[in-house]
Automatic annotation (TrEMBL):
InterPro entries: Rossmann-like_a/b/a_fold (IPR014729), UspA (IPR006016). Gene3D superfamilies: HUPs (3.40.50.620). Residues 42-176 form the UspA domain. This is UspA domain-containing protein. It comes from Microbacterium lacus.
Length: 190
């Protein structure tokens, strides 16, 4: 269950089932800036997304995708049915609580209307679907920190940013995290 931040009374509450968005809510979020986050994401990603939302005069939607659940089917009215991959569904709820607290710490007092929304399944596809529902103006994601584990994961699954770039037409802002790879170093070590 997702909810608005305390400083956004003009945005609709996203309570109850986080996968259902009525027409009024979609309209209130029309043209939003979406930022994909995970617990512990560096503040720079959310701060930059907030800055762009403010520049564009758009609401900011902080999106957390629970990858421990998957979409089973979607009703014609947009209601998404999901099921857990793991029986421990509390993990996704705990992550959402962390994301809400981190977003509030970063965004409160910065004069930008924002809300938090939790989706399920594949992060790129979930963000794409929400972007279509609200006709998002911009998608913001961070890169993964450098490391062999992340390099291997991205080799097999692709980065969320790259997958979004190939599966939809909205602009994507990718915020680099960690230290950049030096020009003389291989990005994909052998």
């Amino acid at each position: 269950m997702a909810a608005d931040a305390p400083n956004t009374p003009d945005l609709p509450a996203v309570g109850g089932d986080p996968e259902r968005m009525g027409g009024g809510e979609a309209e209130a979020l029309r043209g939003a800036v979406l930022v994909g986050v995970v617990p512990g994401i560096p503040t720079r990603v959310v701060r930059e997304a907030g800055r762009y939302a403010k520049l564009l005069g758009a609401p900011l939607v902080v999106v957390h995708v629970d990858v421990t659940r998957f979409v089973t089917y979607e009703d014609p009215d947009g209601y998404v049915h999901s099921a857990p991959i793991d029986i421990n569904i509390a993990a996704g709820e705990n992550d959402l609580a962390i994301v809400k607290a981190e977003a509030a710490k970063i965004l409160d007092g910065h004069n930008v209307a924002w809300s938090v929304r939790q989706l399920v399944g594949d992060p790129a596809m979930a963000m794409k679907h929400l972007a279509e529902q609200v006709d998002a103006r911009l998608l913001v994601v961070g890169t993964r920190k450098r490391g062999i584990g992340e390099s291997i994961r991205e080799f097999f699954t692709g980065s969320v940013a790259a997958r979004l770039a190939h599966r939809q037409q909205r602009p994507i802002l990718v915020i680099p995290l960690g230290e950049p790879v030096p020009d003389d170093e291989e990005i994909w070590p052998a």
